[in-house]
Amino acid sequence: MLNVVLYEPEIPANTGNIGRTCVLTGSRLHLVGPLGFSLDDHLLHRAGLGYWDSLDVTVYKNWSDFLTRNGFELAGFEPRLHLLTKKARRTYAETPHARDDYLVFGRESTGIPDDVLASLPQSCERIPMLPDAASLNNAQTWAAGSPSRDHAALRQQDICGNFINPEDHRISSLNLSNAVAIVLYEALRQTGFGGMELPAR
Questions:
Q1: Burial zone of 18 (CB within 10 Å; 0-12 exposed, 13-18 middle, 19+ buried)
Q2: Where are the domain boundaries for CATH 3.40.1280.10 in the chain?
Q3: Binding residues for S-adenosyl-L-methionine
Q4: What angle do CA 158, 92, 4 make, to 5 degrees?
Q5: Position 150 confidence tier, pLDDT thresholds 50, 70, 90
Q6: Which residues hold S-adenosyl-L-methionine (predicted)?
């Protein structure tokens, strides 16, 4: 069984979508706190549809609690962790995955902290993407089209919920739930998940 780990997630709808994907793929979800929302949030449950109650989910106080409760030893756990970050050279598709691996995704606004990445450099992987495009030429104009146009936090996210740099108005990354699905399905394919075999050439 594969494990999806969300490091301090901030957007409840993303976590709800990811929880639904975990149920449908037989994966476990690990939420590393502090969380940016309550587990009672209606947006989380709405995105999770009726699947949330069937989800195998564990919540941790922080990263240290996650490492301790999963029995990781400093010398032996690195190969089982896959830290997804834009700062890696190797891609997720170049890395072999095994059952019981942990796919770790950072918070929507800032990703996995640099100190965590630096402590596990061989576990860092990225999703290949084209260079960021100028998604919003004028964040004020975009925000003006919203009913809550005066809300400062709204101007820091694009229409998909991705956080943007308010200084240059560019998308910072894939939407978290999309990134999880891309990597999780490759890991499932590699570990023999039913119906995902590559066709013979």
A1: buried
A2: 3-129+174-190
A3: 84, 106, 127, 135, 173
A4: 70
A5: very low
A6: 84, 106, 127, 135, 173
SS (H, E, C) the chain: CCEEEEECCCCHHHHHHHHHHHHHHCCEEEEECCCCCCCCCHHHHHHCHHHHHHCCEEEECCHHHHHHHCCCCCCCCHHHEEEECCCCCCEHHHCCCCCCCEEEECECCCECCHHHHHHCHHHEEECCCCCCCECCCCHHHHHHCCCCCCCHHHHHECCCCCEECCCCCEECCCCHHHHHHHHHHHHHHHCCCCCCCCCCC
Cα 50–chain centre separation: 21
Residues constituting the chain: 201
Q: What is the pLDDT of residues 3-39, one digit of tens each?
A: 999 999 999 999 999 999 999 999 999 999 999 999 9
Residues making up the annotated binding site are: 84, 106, 127, 135, 173
| Closest-CA residue to 163 (of 10, 6, 2) | 10
Q: In the CATH scheme, what is the homologous superfamily, with its name and number, of domain 3-129+174-190?
A: SPOUT methyltransferase, trefoil knot domain (3.40.1280.10)
